[in-house]
């Protein structure tokens, strides 16, 4: 377990007119985070933790917000749902935070939200599964697109390419199982027929048997792999080793340079997946509403940490942005006021998309927030 105590909230992500102030009556605003900075989901959680630390440092250098200091109490749950639940309880009862950011994985997010809802503390999750915000819960929001949206974006692209019959190979972890179910559920809406459906354990080191079965099944025009972690990288390597030439689609759960490195540039070449503007910041037009923000975040992150920026850090970036914007507009850092203001957020440009929440929608993004990306020569490009 690690614990960070920092003064926080990002000036870099806020061209929001923060001088339009809140009450100075509260001397300190305490925000909490439970992030999977180590363990099997560290490739997700590490950039999230780094992002929060960077934004904290930047705000402190600028003197805080209207002279008010915000303390971020951050725990590393290692991807363990039980630890995440324990830390959520500690954040609320001992650290007395007014909002929580975290839930790097679906499992940890579901653990945190149960505690946050009971305590009526706003919680912004960083995981993708639709179950986090469906059904809508009063105090729970999230920044990543849902797995259902990822399926829809992929199927849209398949339709443009004349693909109607596919093979599915999914991880049996929480994310993989959830996205597999969502892809099956919406397939008929896009006239997609799933001819063969295979699965693998996230700890498996080889998926050749499943992919051989898919390859030998007639009529398939493309393959889709719902999953995250090392599994999709192994699938991609094995896919290349078997010489399968059909288009391969991955999920937004692997939208990072780490996926390309693990899979190998040659194997990953041509893979398509739905991703965020952040991964193609240098390709965005100057009139794109996300361009200034994602470019600034990318530049600062890469200069500070000497590593490529990624989708997952962007989720943490946006969670902090949403909370800060809400506190600013509410003029209060009381949990109920923050929750109410988040729900009224409209047209807020973040690294992941442009957020507009409502009582019926605690995600706030539509399919336009996804960009269909293709890996070429070891890098991200906009799919044509």
TrEMBL record:
Belongs to the leucine-binding protein family. Pfam families: Peripla_BP_6. Component of an amino-acid transport system. It comes from Pseudochrobactrum asaccharolyticum. This is Amino acid/amide ABC transporter substrate-binding protein (HAAT family). Keywords: Amino-acid transport, Signal, Transport. GO terms for biological process: amino acid transport. The keyword Transcription does not apply. Gene3D superfamilies: 3.40.50.2300. Residues 1-27 form the signal peptide. Residues 28-364 form the Leucine-binding protein domain.
